[in-house]
Design goal:
ibrinogen binding protein from staphylococcus aureus fold, six-stranded antiparallel sheet, five-stranded antiparallel sheet, about 40% helix, 4 domains, single chain
């Protein structure tokens, strides 16, 4: 994922066209690493995303929506105080570094015009966003505070002098000639891609390898020519944003990767490319962070029930010995005349045995023969009763295990909006303590995700049990087609059609397989039937149903098909 200096330059070029002179109308900080500016420019609202995520650090215009916290963080409040209502006067990149500075003109508390600098440093785990005064001398605040004990080179705290990131003594590739480029490379030393990355700013290993591929290990003049080609594309903004699909991986860049022969997807702007590339990855990471406590709780409950199941199985195994104790009690009663008080055992004829063999019965010396017999009968009754009870407990525990395994699968594929549904379900089922509501508010209606088939038919997918239940029991019509992976935890899927086409049926089956535990499998069995044949048993867990008159088809889930069908975010 090379968000390098070249991609940064392409983003800055676009922002200078889209948001320059625009007015900042809203500032939100949805997470501790993300910031959203809403900018009004030329009659439309534009959302600008800043991210200092250690893996997904980036800057671009976004069309995605983000859930904001109830109480904005202090850094967000600080930005609102100084930048809200301000105009973006300038956007510039520091050479070919991944450092972008926005100059913003605003008014202070008494109405005087002031200028502030917002510096975005996109450097992996060292990324940061800093608000500086007009002269860029002092830090007013920053998104990530770095003390002197954490970084000896520079301290990033309010009130401290701003020091730029340390120089790596690299050369800006846009300011040199082809001959100067060759002087920086030692062709006898080998590892040319590493040398290029080491000597020039803004060039990632991805582009260094592309340059070598274009040169085909040719002469020095060939390297010079190919370097100048890339330099010209960057200088004249001849960018072609594209995502490249390599098996299960994805890569992107704004410089055409001529060495790539696989599937690729072109975009009309760098921001659109970045928005699509990072959308799933960033949201999955946010969901993973927000769901850590939920996943830990469900895993603990799952382990607890598996331990309980093992205990029940051992109890059931012991219960199978119940008949043995009844037999011993009856044999002892029949031969009571052979036993005296204080005997530790007695050997009798086992008339239950076809061969009438002898059997030795152990006795407790502190009990009478009659008390020993009654002890055998008492143990028989207890084991028989426990066997009947434990069979029901095993059924219930197996249902609990299936339920929590289903929840784990739902958490794995959840969106941010799905997590609260899962938490609320656990509260309703009594697993989590219910929250005290200070205000009386209406319960939020579940929102299954809406997909659109190739022929325009609507397909709904439940992403958690609450959505599954709402979709199957209330939203769907009795003649709609219902789908679910066969004997595999997964989502309920409904086609809003009585007789969907064969292609729509297979597309819906793709969704059912993709949003199930079998997401990475091949040839996944998917059952389908009409909604009228789907029933929820009385007292069953949320989302659990039985169905009949089903047919089965087999599909291999593919992410690209799911993305193509995802034209709507929510239903």
């Amino acid at each position: 994922m090379p968000f390098d200096g070249i991609v940064t330059r392409a983003v800055v070029e676009e922002l200078q066209t889209e948001i320059l002179k625009g007015r900042i109308t809203k500032i939100h900080q949805p997470t501790k690493t993300e910031l959203i500016f809403t900018i009004r420019n030329e009659g439309k609202n534009i959302s600008l995303l800043f991210s200092i995520h250690p893996t997904y650090a980036r800057l671009h215009v976004t069309e995605n929506t983000f859930k904001n916290p109830k109480h904005p963080p202090m850094f967000c409040m600080h930005l609102r105080k100084y930048l809200l209502g301000g105009f973006i006067e300038n956007i510039e990149q520091d050479g070919m570094e991944r450092i972008v500075t926005l100059t913003i003109k605003a008014r202070d508390e008494i109405g005087d015009i002031t200028f502030k600098k917002l510096v975005i440093e996109l450097m992996g785990r060292h990324s940061n966003i800093l608000l500086l005064n007009e002269n860029e001398e002092h830090i007013m605040d920053c998104m990530k505070h770095i003390s002197a004990s954490q970084n000896r080179y520079r301290t990033l705290l309010p009130g401290h002098t701003y020091i730029k990131p340390p120089s790596q003594e690299k050369v800006n590739p846009l300011t040199i000639s082809g001959d100067e480029f060759l002087q920086k490379i030692d062709f006898n030393d080998g590892k040319l891609d590493r040398q290029i990355v080491k000597n020039f700013t803004g060039i990632s290993p991805f582009i260094a390898q592309e340059l070598i591929s274009r040169a085909h290990l040719g002469s020095m003049d060939t390297y010079k020519e190919k370097f100048l080609d890339i330099q010209t594309d960057i200088k004249h903004a001849n960018f072609k944003p594209m995502i490249y699909y390599v098996e299960s991986k994805e890569e992107f860049h704004v410089i055409p990767i001529t060495s790539f022969k696989g599937k690729k997807e072109a975009f009309s702007s760098t921001s659109k490319m970045l928005d699509q590339f990072y959308e799933d990855k960033a949201e999955k990471d946010r969901v993973r962070q927000q769901a850590q406590d939920l996943k830990r709780f469900v895993n603990n409950e799952l382990k607890k029930n598996k331990r309980k199941l093992n205990i029940h199985k051992k109890t059931l195994k012991r219960a199978k010995d119940a008949e043995k104790y009844q037999r011993l009690g009856e044999l002892l009663t029949a031969h009571m005349h052979l036993v005296s008080n204080g005997d530790s055992e007695v050997t009798v004829i086992d008339y239950y045995d076809p061969e009438q063999k002898e059997i030795t019965i152990p006795l407790k010396t502190d009990q009478t023969p009659s008390e020993n017999a009654q002890a055998f009968f008492t143990r028989y009754r207890k084991l028989k009763t426990s066997g009947q009870i434990v069979k029901k407990e095993i059924q219930r525990t197996n249902a609990e295990i299936a339920y929590f395994e289903q929840l784990l699968q739902q958490i794995k594929t959840a969106r941010e909006i799905d997590l609260e549904d899962i938490r609320e379900e656990l509260r309703d089922e009594g697993y989590l303590r219910k929250q005290r509501r200070t205000k009386r508010r209406q319960k939020r209606k579940p929102k299954p995700q809406l997909f659109v088939a190739t022929d325009g038919t609507h397909i709904f997918v439940g992403r958690n049990n609450k959505q599954n239940e709402y979709l199957t029991q209330r939203l769907a019509h009795r003649n709609d087609i219902w789908l679910h992976t066969k004997d595999i935890p997964g989502s309920h899927v409904v086609i809003r059609s009585y007789q969907p086409s064969e292609k729509t049926l297979h597309e819906a089956a793709q969704l059912a397989a993709y949003f199930s535990r079998a997401q990475q499998s091949a040839s996944v069995p998917v059952d389908y039937t009409h909604i009228r044949h789907v029933k929820k048993p009385k007292g069953a867990k949320p989302g659990f149903v039985t169905y009949e008159r089903q047919k089965t088809l087999f599909v291999t889930p593919k992410k690209e098909i799911v993305k193509r069908l995802s034209r709507h975010k929510e239903g």
